[in-house]
What does this fold into?
Amino acid sequence: MTTSRPRVRRGSALILVLMMTLAIAGLSIAAIFLSSSASLLSTAYDRERKFRLAALAAIEMARDSIQRYALVDTIPRASGTPMQLLSGAAVRDAAGDPIDGVSVNVYAAMTGDTLGGILPTVSLVAQAYDTYGVRHVQRADLRPESFSHFTMFVNGNVTAHGPAVVGGRAHANGNWQILAATQQENVFLDTLSVTGTISDQGAGTKAATFVLGSRQGATRIDYPRDSTYGWMQTAAATAGLDVNLTAANSAIGSTLGGSRIEFVAFDADADGTVEAAEGFFVVLDFAANNRDRRSATPTNVQANANKRTSDPLFDPLDRVIQHQCGAFYRRLWSGSTYRWHFIPVSSHARPGFKTLLQQTGTGRYPVVTYATISDFANTTKASAATRAILELPTARCFPAGSPYLMPAERFTAANNAGQHSGSGDVTPWGQASAAPTADGWYGGSDTTFTAVLKSCSPISAVSGCAAAPVTIAALRAPSSGVGTALSHSVMNAYVWRLSSPYNSSASNPGLVNIRVAAGDTVHLSGTVRGRITVRVDSGVVLPDRLRYAQDPNDPTTAPCENQLGLIARGDILVASGLPNRIYEIGTTNNSKYVVRTGGEGRFTLHGFLMSLRGSVGVAGDTLDFGPTGQQFSCPDDEQALKDDSNGGCVAITGGIIMDRYREFYRSLGAGGNGNKNILNDYAKTRNGMRYSGAWDRCAESGGRPPYFPVTTRVFVVRSLEVGVSRANTPSRVEAYLRSLLGKPL
It folds into this structure.
């Protein structure tokens, strides 16, 4: 029997062992390589992170320098060479030690909208590099903070503020002292921040409502100096908008007598619409002996035996009241068309107005007794006529030179009836009308332009001037820098154009500089159309309304179509005059208070008003304008509080920014002892005018008046990485920043 033997498998185990050994060795080598690669990648990532964080740190270092040294206004536009804020700077760690092997450069330029329309954009480009070249580039866009962001800003302490409503952001570089009896009398609709403390002068508590809270011990916000904005004169001059009021006016042969800038808006191209570019201004110059008439302040104050002697009762026959006050009448013009006519007090007795004022019909307003309002036969009847006119609901006063005063201002002794004689010096602001009558319907019916006025003071129908005429002349605009001629030829030589297409040289649109003699002031009023910033060498007085052509908070209009920035070296004060202040007119026998007239109980201003050296407020904040019982509430919807200012209130939509705080009005005890701690004495008299501030929605959307000052604070709004190849050399950085010019964020 044959037996089979198993096959011999020699060496297979050895091969298997060798293969396993090689596999394990391969895995070990792979693990070693993987570990080495991970270490290399980690090192590479660490180096990349170091350069990226170094660039971010450089951005913050540059931002700190911009704020610390107030560099925002010195950073150039991206169209030129950028500013280098850091050059080869070291970046330090948390311990303060420099990080080895990395240095940084930072370049800065103004990008985005650089025409002053909205808040400017400061773009920073940071390079982090080593000995081998630039490793990382970071860009950051910064947004400066404009002073137009604040509804109220004070560079110091605020004392005895209130009662008042502050409708937007408020800040003080100091303490804020509130004067109020209850929370309802002081309302802050946005945050109030102060570097010091907030207190109440009377009760020792914060007697106010803070809708969005308040903050004490806040960081100081640096206030600009007037020397910072000298460049505006040069910039305005290039557009023919540097108004020099320091020299004698040879056209009327007077020395310095003060001037008024009257803003006007009219349909210059006669297309039926007043566009944003159709905003202009006229410069009215006054003779040296006529300073007070710019503000229309009465001078004849009567004593009153039945009231405190401090109560001013102005004589109804005062030349300012007779000449610059009157009433509007809605009367039939032609066919079935009714129009408004303004007739000064002194012109009511003129025969040419008799037919107009005696009209009957349902469309006329207000209804009057002509025999009463036109009887100037003697002093007693003239006083009664003045009272009847000024008690009408449409009564109003205007500063000298207003087109509405034409029937009186052209009523000279040599020209009792011919209001419109001369070489075509009377031209309407684009409003169609029928031919004027001999007694001046035209001048009081719509706004007109007259290059030279001879302002007298007539008090009867036939007597001519009661005093020597005072000359008021419009100054000619520069012959250079004007573009398309206006459709009204008479105005062309006198209307100053703000922007294209009417001013082809306005490379800095809406920027006006006004030079005033030291110690003098300029008076501003009128209707602002478009966007404008005005810088004034000295102080500013506001004799009448200074408002936009449209309500700045009307939701049906664009938020920034009209905007005014006013920068003055001195005080900006609402005048103590009839067009804006409530005054009392007395009777000749001092028997009683007759009528409170002049401006409005709620006097409205639009714009951002900034005083670089002084205050923003009202003139005559200590003056007493009448009895306590006839005061005006501001704002209208306040909780039925009637113990406000007897001079009326001033409602400002925009902002007030000042170096030193000034009280808008003062509270006096019933005996006039000036004790402002009598908070619950409702018999007190509050003099001056009460302040109420409202927010301008344009500022909320990031807009500001052209080139309006910014604070030193800047905030990062966007940060992103840039390809190294696009900005690794100075020339490429410059080209990259230039590519951002004019582009919105």
